[in-house]
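User: My instructor asked us to take a sequence, write out its structure as tokens, and then describe one feature of it. I'm not sure where to start. Here is the sequence I was given:
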Amino acid sequence: MRPEAFGRGTDKARFVADMFSRIAGRYDLMNGLMTFGMHHGWRRAAARETIAAPEGPALDLATGTGDLALELREVHPHRDIVGADFAEGMLRIARDKVRELDATRRVRLVAADALALPFDDRAFACVTSAFLLRNLADLRQGLEEMKRVTRPGGRVVALEITQSTVPGFAQLFRAYFHHVVPLVGRVIARDGEAYTYLPQSVDRFLTPRELSALMEAVGLKAVTYRRVGLGTVTIHTGVA
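Assistant: Let's start with the prediction itself. The structure tokens for your sequence are:
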């Protein structure tokens, strides 16, 4: 599949929403298989980056099936959590999961577009996302929205897949990501297109240093990042 097939602007947004709704039923299974179960630990680490945030509710953008929102619930027993996503198929899975865990009093799920959030300025003490930013039709606008709805001193945390730079392992990971993952996606998720898009979207995305610079450009302060998973995943943190 050529990268241009993913579209731009509203075409890309529609492509991404349709794709994630389509794979929602097998999304958790595929995450577990692709990451050998490590994705839960990465989300937990991202949630812990918000511990220093001021009082107030937390927002998890592109919440998907709700895993990061539920990690926030564990890290912050006193906060209300809002999980937002524009893929209705994902939200259906997340609602079932939240009900099964009896978390409906603490975790509220809403349909929302990350580029035009239906929330007031400074509504949240912290805003998180997992594997959202490379899927945005307008990355800068998405970061600006995240900052807009975060209170002064609040935390903005983004977990993203990254091209590894570890010698030897980087080449091995690239081969795995570009050949094995799409094959598993075709067999398990029955959607080769989605899992071909995944590695190609990472190839086209900013480096951690470039993303940090953009976070600073939209007004976030004390921006830092750290790599996990042998450099294949990066946790970015900024202060509003």
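For the description part of your assignment, you could build on this observation: The chain has eight helices and seven strands. Try explaining in your own words what that tells you about the chain.
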